[in-house]
Amino acid sequence: MRSTIVESKMNYPKNWQDDEQLQIREHFNSKYPYLVYKRSMDILTSLLMIVLVFPWLFPLLILLIKLDSRGPAFFKQKRVGFLGRTFWCYKFRTMYVNDMADTRQAVRNDPRVTRLGKFLRNTCLDELPQFFNVLLGHMSVVGPRPHMLKDSREFSSQVANYKFRYLSRPGITGLSQVRGYRGPATSFQSIFRRYQWDAYYVRNVSFILDLRIMAETGTLMIKSVLNKNKPVPVGKSVFERGTMTAAKKIA
To answer: Quick one: what percent of the chain has pLDDT higher than 90?
Structure first.
């Protein structure tokens, strides 16, 4: 059976240079035991969600989406993932059908977002179909969030070595998200801070770090559902105070 974790011969994107390919191999060799665990946990977690939660929650959400606005219940979009490769990312549809979904980020009070879509976005329930992406190996439960193609090109042009974050499979949730960097990235500061946390995660991936991010994500989602449909709040410090200082030194 072919490994979905680390292949013996990796097909690197054409724009990755020899020194970058060496960096990739060294990174994977040093993290191999962790990557085996991570992929195993991704498969187990996604299967449990699909078997235990999706059969009753998906029909309810699909019905509500259909009643709320015209259009399909699911939305798929090309996103940039592992090693800069593209894949189809799945979500519940949260906007009215429009021609700018693949080129313009959603902003606060975006008129394209439906009434139910606002709730789904605020509680992160719109991301649930991505557990199928996890099972297929396109994503992980925890990792840097995948960008749409336009944003990936734009962010890469603004932040040096932005490709470093692609050494990890993109995640349904990530360190940037639990530190409060969700929604549109409209300024250099917001783009750069997200990259700092993503790069910190890639450099320091571990079993404990993943569990803490998952636990914090679950706590924030519950708070949002109970807090009158307000957006997921910024989490309390999951790490020591010196973490941000360390993250600032990455880029």
So the answer is: 57
Two tokens, residue 64 = 């509500």
Spatial CB neighbours of 4, under 8 Å, sequence gap ≥ 6: 39, 137
pLDDT per residue as tens digits for the range 151-190: 999 999 999 889 889 989 999 999 998 998 887 787 888 8
**Contact criterion met (CB below 8 Å) for 80 and 162:** no
Tell me the whole-structure pTM to 2 decimals.
Answer: 0.82
pLDDT band at 18 (very low <50, low <70, confident <90, very high): low
Write out the chain in H/E/C secondary structure. CCCCCCCCCCCCCCCCCHHHHHHHHHHHHHHHHHHHHHHHHHHHHHHHHHHHHHHHHHHHHHHHHHHHCCCCCEEEEEEECHHHCEEEEEEECCECCCCCCCCCCCCCCCCCECHHHHHHHHHCHHHCCHHHHHHHCCCEEECCCCEEHHHHHHHHHHCCCHHHHHHCCCEEECHHHHCCCCCCCCCHHHHHHHHHHHHHHHHCCCHHHHHHHHHHHHHHHHHHHHCCCCCCCCCCCCCCCCHHHHHHCCC
Closest CA to 187 of 213, 155, 230: 155
Nearest to 131 by CA among 121, 120, 142: 142
- Radius of gyration (C-alpha) of the chain in whole angstroms: 18
Q: Rounding to the nearest 10 degrees, give the CA dihedral for residues 126, 130, 131, 134.
A: -160
DSSP β-ladder status, 74-80 and 86-92: antiparallel
What is the separation, in whole angstroms, between the first and last Cα of the chain? 38
